[in-house]
Amino acid sequence: MIKRLFLLTIFIITIITIKMEDSLEIPQIGNIFNRKKISLNGKWNYIIDVQEEGYYGYRMDVRKRGFFVNEKPKNPDDLIEYDFDKAPEMEIPTDWNTKNNKLFFYEGTIWFKKSFNYTINQNKKIILYFGAVNYETIVYINGILIGKHIGGFTPFNFDITSKIKNGNNFIILKIDNKRKKENIPTLIFDWWNYGGITRDVYLIETNLIYIQNYHLYLNKQNKKQIYINIQLNNNIANKSIEISIPELNIKKYFKTNNKGIVIGNIDINNLILWTPENPKLYKVILKLDNEEIFDNIGFRSIEASNKNILLNGVPIFLKGISLHDEKPNGGGRINNISDVKKILSWVKDLGCNFIRLAHYPHNEYMIREAEKEGILVWSEIPLYWTISWDNKDTYNNAKKQLTDMILRDINRANIIIWSIANETPSGKSRDIFLSNLITHTRNLDSTRLITMALEVASTLDDNYTNQLTDNMANYVDIISINEYIGWYRDTNNISKMKWVIPYNKPVIISEFGAGAKYGYHGNKNERWTEEFQENVYINNLKMIEKIDGLVGVSPWILKDFRSPRRLLNGIQDYYNRKGLISDNGDKKKAFYILKNWYEKIKEKRNNDL
Asked: Comparing C-alpha atoms, which of 7, 143, 2 is closest to residue 444?
């Protein structure tokens, strides 16, 4: 119980204190899907501001005179070189790169404006919520600066109760997706830098005192008991919160302590645990005063025990695939449920029970739909390659993105792994940076496993033995390794490769693969052909299945995706071609190699049972 109190204290301190100075940004509100809300999706006007005149121009400095923020100059004789109402429109949510050919490569500032009507209720708080905006966002409402957010893949929200007006209102955003060395991700990364309002925008209506967030989870030691942590938006004691689970005939009442927190548990005798085979979700209703929210929650345990991963105490093999948050046809950010269902139909056809969501938090639609489909999830933050490890602001940004990822999805049963980084170069500064993040993750959420995608540090003299020596392997729960044997190195005799992994921990091969253009054929030694990719998969799987402690794989990658680093004309054409499926949905030969391997694993597991 003492440990639970400590973890909850860290959870609450984190969601209260990580906020911008002099800003109306507030801690993330949980379970946005089932709150009372008004959508601000739809048509937004936009103005491309290449030189950032609307922000830095000395004659029209938004910080002093409100050039873009006030819709039009007050003096009708002023020269008007902008007009939001005459500006083009863009359907939000989306990325701007795929909506305007002129913006395909654009990195810079674009201003967005949305007008809306609102009727004020004096007894309600109004929260302006963004699912994600890439990358740096400055937010104004009715011409007033309300805050700034940095980070492109996690939600953020502002309390605008004091700023919204009865009747006509307008929101203006300055969005800048320029890459910077100190950012997360940093200057160079292998995916498209999609800019814009990429996820849903809502006005959330709540009571003045409301449930800010909560966590309901299974007691690992007693699978007939669930723990409950609830946080109000106010440190108010003796508030009564009702929790009911109708299907289980559960109705319990709890009182908040003087920090506005509920800590409790519920004993349940007939609880059905969530599994990929039976992804059972229970409708849980939380009621405070006259306001209630509900969530569909699954209960399960996940643990690492020696060289196994145990789901509900039973060893499980993770038949996975890696994904980017990109639409199934033509690129662009996923922003609707139909895109998600299409992607997941390919995942299920492949025979997967697990997806690695690389290399940043994906759209919440993906998490929730995968949970319904019984698909386990690895979720990670974009600490990718060469981060500014000694920069304090960079660390704080990483910590904020990690926190927001966890808080958004803390009640999703299918998320079993938090990943803190991908392919980072070893070094003392990196180790301090990442080990601190791991400590923070454990304090914030003790119910999931932690990993990071490592690289092989060295090969032994025979060049056929790969040795893992990364210091960070001592900190994680799962050893995860990216290897491209057969593509970036050692193209011959792949199946002869051996591994030295000196840790009593489960192992996931988190990436392997090769590039191939769909429909391009040749012999198995000819790069970019489907036959070459197929051969790499055949031999990698022979090698991988011999690894001691192997508990899963997530090959790279489900489908081809856009990347500015992939320039080869006639082959790549700004696509990373390592997908098992083309961007148009065509399955390559290697798709069936992996599908058949997963089927054999399924048959073997059934025989073992």
From this structure: 7
Alpha helices in 50-158, H assignment, sequence order: 53-56
Count of beta carbons in the 10 Å neighbourhood of residue 224: 12
Task: Please give the order of strands across the beta sheet that includes 291-297.
Answer: 250-255, 240-245, 282-288, 291-297
Going by their DSSP bridges, the two strands 124-130 and 89-92 should be labelled as: unpaired
Q: What is the pLDDT of residues 295-314, one digit of tens each?
A: 999 999 999 999 999 999 99
Closest CA to 383 of 441, 446, 445: 441
For the entire predicted model, the pTM comes to: 0.93
Q: Tell me: do 218 and 193 sit in the same domain.
A: no
**Alpha carbon distance 463, 492 (integer Å):** 12
In the chain, how many domains are there?
A: 3
Q: Which residue, among 239, 241, 210, 209, has the nearest Cα to 228 in the 3D structure?
A: 241
- Phi-psi sector, 437: left (phi>0), alpha (psi -120 to 50), beta: alpha
Q: How many CA atoms lie within 13 A of 57 on its CB side?
A: 13
> What average pLDDT does range 540-545 have in this prediction?
94
- Are residues 159 and 204 in contact, defined by beta-carbon separation less than 8 angstroms? no
CATH number at residue 237: 2.60.40.10
CA distance 418 to 114: 35
pLDDT of residue 151 exceeding 60: yes
The tokens describing 90, both together, are 């863009």
Q: Is the peptide bond before 279 cis (omega within 30 degrees of 0)?
A: no
Task: Find the radius of gyration of the CA atoms of the chain.
Answer: 25
Instruction: Please state, in angstroms and rounded to a whole number, the distance separating the CA atoms of residues 283 and 295.
Output: 6
- The DSSP string of 154-201 is S-EEEE-TTT--SEEEEEEEEEE----TTSSS-S--SS----EE-S-E
For the chain, how many residues are written? 609
Token representation of residue 120: 């004020």
| pLDDT per residue as tens digits for the range 574-603 | 999 999 999 999 999 999 999 999 999 877
Q: Which residue blocks in 69-136 are alpha helix, DSSP H?
A: none
Residue from 597, 466, 601, 605 nearest 538 by CA: 597
Which of these three, 303, 332, 362, is where a domain ends?
Answer: 303
B/e letters for 277-313, b = 16+ CB within 10 Å, e = fewer, are eebbbbebbbbbeebebbbbbbbbbbbbeebbbbbbe
Tokens matching residue 409: 């999805």
Q: What is the 3-state secondary structure (H, E, C) of 199-225?
A: CCEEEEEEECCCEEEEEEEEECCEEEE
Task: Give the pLDDT of residue 7.
Answer: 42
In a domain, 260, yes or no: yes
310-350 residue pLDDT tens: 999 999 999 999 999 999 988 899 999 999 999 999 999 99
C-alpha span between 81 and 565 (Å, rounded): 37
361 and 298 in a single domain? The answer is no
CA dihedral 365→182→332→53, nearest 10 degrees, is 120
